[in-house]
Write a structure and sequence with these properties.
This protein is an alpha/beta fold. It has eleven helices and eight strands.
Length: 302
Amino acid sequence: MLNFDNIQSTLFDANSPPQDQPGLPPLKGQLLKWIGNKQKFAKEICNYFPKQYGTYFEPFIGSGAVLATLAPKIAVAGDVFGPLVEIWQKLHDDTGELIRWYAERHALIDVMGKKEAYAKVLADYNARPNGADLLFLSRVCYGGVVRFRKSDGYMSTPCGPHRPMPVDNFAERAYIWAARTRGARFMHADFEDTMKLAKAGDLAYFDSPYVDSQGIIYGAQAFSVERLFEVVGGLKARGVHVAVSLDGTKKSGDHTVELPIPAGLFEREVMVHLGSSMLKRYQLKDQTAEDHHVADRLLLTY
């Protein structure tokens, strides 16, 4: 876990409002396939952010889509899931080594076949969870749904039918993502610990586990949305702007997920329409998910 005292001064000495930086390469595709990926909707979400803010925080980093779309000059991003944070830290510190992680495992496909290579890397990961194996698995698993068994924490997603991304294509994408997230510092920490660094005028985007789907997502089984709202309330009182993505409507609008949102905590609620559910597409396999369109709540404290 991070020692907050050691980084506080380096983060905030030159705390100018982050803007998308001129000359950055345009974002092309996902670095990671990840359930709940906001890649297609990140620009819409960013449009609701304040124009001026200090440090940008994203304590549930996931696929990093909103971070990479925004490309802030100063950011803190984190997650409680260690192997995921390893990927982001390696992207930042040594992009070439991250590419080698992927290349070494991708090379197994030519030797063993895709399903056999996937099975080997999956077994290696489950024996010793780590970012290098998770990177390959996230890109090759079925539907990008990285799920874990409740009983023992093992990743249980089968191999997907698609052709895995060639190494050269992944390398190009990795360097783009490294450039667009270079202002971020990545933490292995609980979201509440990450947000202890935030100050008045900063901005935080929370894409936490969702109430309706948290049962099969890594570490989400015991996640408390009530604790999330308590942390948001404390941040709002300190002058930090907070945007939160959470469950909205499912089954093409026929079902609204009820959430224990404290009265007066948020100033605005908007709906972001996401199309068909990624999780439902995985569960239905080859069946259509046209009747399972979803919309997320975007809750804003400002």
